[in-house]
C-alpha cells in the first residue's frame, strides 16, 4: 500500500468480508459479478486453457496473454467504451496480463472457519479476548464438544429442559435417537452453536470497551490483595495480572485500528493471484505446480461437499455434516499453516506441503528473500572483516564500493569545482581513477553517514549508522565491539551498506542510529557493546605474559637463565629470550618492541611511580641483592624495590609484559577521552 506521503509499505492485518469481496469482484457488462472461485480445476487437460470459475480462471484473474481473451480475440487495452473492455463471449477483460500478479479471488465458505494464526498463535488472540482456555476453544472448533451454550437470548428448549432435575435421566435416553431425526438441522441452527460459528457469534457479541473496564477493575482488585504468602497462589495471581494487561492492550488495539474481533473467523477465504502460485510446464510433458494450488483444491472440494450436504440437510445425517465441517476447518488450517495440527500434511510422495506461512517465513520466504533481499539503488554488499584501528562509530568502505555509492556526489563536486566540464568527462576521470577523484570522495564521505545492515534484521540494532572511511581491499571493515548488536562475526558474514540520500534520513542516522549511541540493548538494557570472540582472544594473547614467573631462577642476579648468553659489547644490545630488561617508562618499552628487541609477551621490569599501594605490607621478598655502594634490590613476585643505604626507596619497578603495558595505555587513553567529552558536555 502507499500512504499519503507516497511511502510504499506492507501491512498485515485483519480485513472484513466486504473488503475481500471488493478486492476480487468485477462487474461484467451483462450485470454478472465474477470473483468467486467455485471449482478446484486449473487447466483443461486437452486444450490447456484455464477452466471457468477455477483457480486460474481468466474471467476472475485476468487474461494470460496481454489484450487477448480466452476466445483468442484481441482489443486495445485502453478502450474507453465499457462494453469493449470485456469480451462479449467469454467475459474476459482486455487488460495487461500483469493483472494476474495482483488480482485476487475468494472462496465462499459453507461454514465459518477460524484463522489458525489467531487461534493457535502464542498468545492466542481469540482465547485472550474470550477469556477461555485454548483447549476448550479448539475442542469447540474441531467438533470435540457437541454442545455449546445456546446463543439465543430468549428461553429455548435447552434452557428449559435444564431446569428440571427429574428430566435428566429421560433426556439421556432420548438424545441419541434425537440426533438422527430429519429436523435436527433446524433445531441445531436455532439451539446449538458449534464449530467456528460459535466462536464467531461470541466474538461478535463482545463489547471491547466493557472488556477494558472489567479487566482494569479485576487487575486493581488483584493488585490490592497483595501477597498471601502462598507461593502457588501468588504465582497464579501474577499470571492473571499479566493476562489482564495483555487483554486490555489487545482490546485497545482492536478499537484503535477499527477492526472487528469476529473478522478472526473467516467466512470468505481470499485466493492468491495465480502468478504467485504458478503452474510451470517443463520438457517431457512434466508439470510443476505450487503446493498452494493443491491446498486450495482441497479446500474447494471439501467446501463443495459441505455445501451439497447443507442443501440436502433433511436427508444428510447430522454427524456427517459436523464431520464435513471439521474437514473444511482442517483444510483451511493446512492452507494457512501446514504444521498447525502437529505433523505437517504430506502428498502422495511423502513430501510436505508448503503452506502460506511456509511461503512467507524463514530465510527463503517471500519477505526476507524477495522483499528485504531485493537489490536497491545506492547499496552494496561485501564480507566483513575486523578493523582494529577504527573507532566505534567508523566503518571501512572499499574504494570500489565507495566510488559507486558516492558517484553522483563526486560528479557534482567535480563539475562545481570546475575540474570537469560535463558528466561524461567526470565519469571518465572516475574510471581512470585520477588523484582528484579520491580527494573529492574523501571530502564527500566526511559528512555523509552510511547504514550497515546484516540480515536477518530481528531488532533495531540490526541496522546502524557509521562514518565511512576508505580502506584497501574488497571487504568492509568493522569495529569488533559492534558485532554483538548485528549478531555477526568474522567467519565470512556479509553485510549490506546503504546510503541515506535525503537530509531527513541523514539527520535520523546521525541522531538515532549511530553505533556509539546504541551501547545498551533495547530489550533488557544491558550493555551490548562488550568484547566477544575475536576481542577476547586478542586480549588473552595480549595479556597472557610469561608463565615461568620470577622464580624460574631466583638466584640469577642478572635475570638470566642458565646457559644464557647476553651480548653486552653493543650499547643497543640485542635482547635474547630469557633476559628481563629494565625500562624507565612505557615509551622506551614500546620503542624496544618496534626495534624487535623484545616480544609481546616478554617479561620486563617497568619503572613505576612511588606508590605505596604497590607494596604489600605482609609480603616477604623472594630475594634481596646488595651492591658495594650500599644500594639494595628487594625482589618480590610482581615488583622490585630499589633502595639506598638509608633504607629510602629510590624507585619501584613492576614486572609486566609489553602486552599488559599496551592494554593499560589503551584504557588510560579511553578514560581520558571520555573525561574530556564529559567536560565538554557540561
From TrEMBL:
Keyword Disulfide bond in annotation: no
Cofactor note: Binds 1 Zn(2+) ion per subunit.
GO BP term, example: DNA-templated transcription
Binding site residues for Mg(2+): 489, 491, 493
Chain ranges passing through the membrane: none
GO cellular component, one term: DNA-directed RNA polymerase complex
Family, per entry: Belongs to the RNA polymerase beta' chain family. RpoC1 subfamily.
Protein name per Swiss-Prot or TrEMBL: DNA-directed RNA polymerase subunit gamma
Source organism of this protein record: Hsuehochloa calcarea
Species lineage: Eukaryota, Viridiplantae, Streptophyta, Embryophyta, Tracheophyta
